[in-house]
Specification:
The structure is a single chain. By secondary structure, the chain is α+β, with helices and mostly antiparallel strands. Helices cover 27% and strands 33% of the residues. It is built from five helices and eleven strands. Strands 1, 2, 3, 4, 5, 6, 7 and 8 form an eight-stranded mixed sheet that branches. Strands 9-10-11 form a three-stranded antiparallel sheet. A hairpin with a 4-residue loop joins strand 6 and strand 7. The longest helix is centred in the last third of the chain and has 15 residues. The model has no long low-confidence stretch (mean pLDDT 90).
Amino acid sequence: MTADQLRQFLPSLKEQSLAGESAHRMLAPEARRRFFDKHTDYQSFKPKQAAVMLLIFPDAREKMHLAFIKRHVYPGVHSDQIGFPGGKREETDAHFWHTALRETQEEVGISAATIQLIRPLSTVYIPPSNFEVFPFLAHCTDTPNWQLSPDEVQELIALPVAQLFDQQWLIEKELTFANDTKVLTPGFQWESHFIWGATAMMLQELRMLLAGIN
């Protein structure tokens, strides 16, 4: 996808229906699907709230990419995982969109003034960390001047939007969790990176949204 094509598709992207849970379940690990079958109202767990940014941006040749970050290794549920820029909502954030903007600026150094909202996507609940996540699809008209936070971001990953249409990168991979539990998990393999969990679930909804305009 080029920058011109994105501009052409923007009206359709804003009007398309979202797949929501049907998209999320396609990429949810089995344990998460069982959780949702058992717990239909996760609000009873009083989840913390966060927002993330699915940011589309052009490279020097006007080819559009999607930004991911790889987090550092730390004592936490999402250690060393690939995700979208974002984080926990603060009381000073007027809206979840402002949370996504603030966290994106803090983590990858992009000024909020250079980011344009396309639309919100469907919320995702993450049982292990008890977070309700509000994703936002947005774009930059110019190549960002990345300034990665050394405390929060290990690596920036720029995924070509064209890759989203490739069915071959959707795989299942055995991951090892606490207590050496091994789980076969659906996700996306991009070069040396495996994108899974809530990030893959949000990405699947974006894939289906983009497929609706082609």
